[in-house]
Amino acid sequence: MQNTFFILNHNPELHNMPQIILLLLACVLAPLLEADSRPNILWITVEDMSSHFGYQGEALVDTPVIDQLARDGTTFTQAFVTAPVCSTARSAMINGMYQTTIGAHHHRSGRGEVKIHLPYPVRPLPELFQDAGYFTANNRKTDYNFEWDRTMYDAQDWTDAPTNQPFFAQIHLRGGKWRNHLGILNARVAQELPALIAPDAVTLPPYYPNHPVLLQDWAAYLDTVNYTDIEVGRILDQLKEAGRLDNTVIIFMTDHGVSHVRGKQFLYEEGIKIPFIVKGPAVPAGVINDELIAHIDMAAISLALAGIDIPDWMQARNVLEPGAQREFVISARDRCDETVEQLRSVRTKQFKYIRNGYPDRPHLQPNRYKDDKAIVQAVREWGKAGKLNENQVALVAPVRPVEELYDLASDPWELNNLAAHPAYMEVLKTHRNLLDTWITDTGDQGQLPEGAQYDSDMAVYTGGRHEGQREILERNIALMKQWEAEGK
């Protein structure tokens, strides 16, 4: 207030104005002219990338910026997305709610005639920040599966925020999408990297065959990890140059795992386990937190650090508080594009339980987007040729088990399904019960048939496609409906 009054009283044009008027003006203008000391909140969300950064032990990458970010903040080593595909994961995180609770669980849904509206009283996080006086920005990607007001973002870039106003901003990096469906790294990105990772240096997870296409794709993927580090460095430099770095909370994470045959869209560790770093004022530095958290918790963390009350309806937790961590994390995958699916997983400290809603369908169901990828074609090719070993044949098996249970302490690659093992019956029952209770308590809408929603969304998918793509989509859609009619 004193600074505002000084400015007004020393403006020559206002010298003849009575002091009482100046005082009233100062009261009105003070909030606009005085700097707001609340921290900025910045989300850096990377697409299609699993836990393969240097600080996580990946030897083939060089990620000094993100490694330092981890050292300077609190690192959550057991962070999981509630949905392993972008639009559903983003719909969940922006509301701090499970996508299955708010009806946003089908990938790229609600884009046709049948719309999806958030249930009352759920509101997207940017609206809550605007209500609290924050400037809001989103640099390029929303991808929400529900109707939302575009004015909840004030701009595309946080640099448009007034210097005396705190901002809440989202920066989305392309991450694994810097390589194409052939597994080839973007040419411009390749030129910016000091060196590229050689395919013969790659060691694939044991559930993937050492096919040359897969080795090339994985090397290019790790190159995108290195490039992500460069991009994050540029963001931090920009914040520092603007004088806003020290007062900015940064949450760094990926939106789900690498786009691969057992990664993105699936509930194995490769698909749902993500890096998650929180760094900024009032955040303990150099802390490694091994408690289970869900990616939606970033909503509650952000509100709490900004001094904004966390709404009672929000399912996210402020996991920076002692005792707020989770006993388990639920992840869910439903329809992706034209491909109908229903997968649920329960991740506890030691075990992973997966329930397959369509066990009579293959892991690699027909899907135009996935089937266009060279890695998927290579796996199918070697599957037909009998070149997959016992750890890999499940990728091309015509059916799946109803239930899967993995002891992650002894089997981190999730290769040995213990669901039928007598010694693990009690563990299986415990995880079944956790999932059943969660389905009821959270109102999991994925348990309900889509009905008109599917046809509405498929009209969007097929519309405007070139003839070849449209034929593939229509064939897959017909197969989905056939399987549904057969009860498969």
Total domain units? 2
- Radius of gyration equals 24 Å
Query: Can you summarize the main beta sheet?
Result: 8 strands, mixed
Unreliable stretches = 1-10
Strand content: 5-15%
State the helical fraction. 25-40%
Order of helices and strands: HHEHEHHEEHHEHEEEHEEEHHEHHH
SS class: alpha/beta
Beta strands, count: 12
Q: Label the overall shape.
A: globular
Number of helical segments? Answer: 14
Distance between the termini: 69 Å
Give a written overview of the molecule.
By secondary structure, the protein is of the alpha/beta class. The protein has 2 domains: 2-33, no CATH class; 39-488, Alkaline Phosphatase, subunit A. Helices cover 33% and strands 14% of the residues. The chain has helices at 2-9, 19-33, 64-72, 86-93, 125-131, 187-192, 212-241, 269-272, 297-305, 368-371, 374-384, 425-442, 452-462, 467-486, and strands spanning 40-46, 74-80, 135-138, 167-173, 248-254, 273-274, 276-279, 287-294, 329-333, 343-347, 351-356, 403-407. Strands 1, 2, 3, 4, 5, 6, 7 and 8 form an 8-stranded mixed beta sheet that branches. A 4-stranded antiparallel beta sheet has the order 9-10-11-12, with helices on one face. The protein is globular. It starts with a helix and ends with a helix. The relative contact order is 0.15. The model is unreliable at 1-10 (pLDDT under 50).
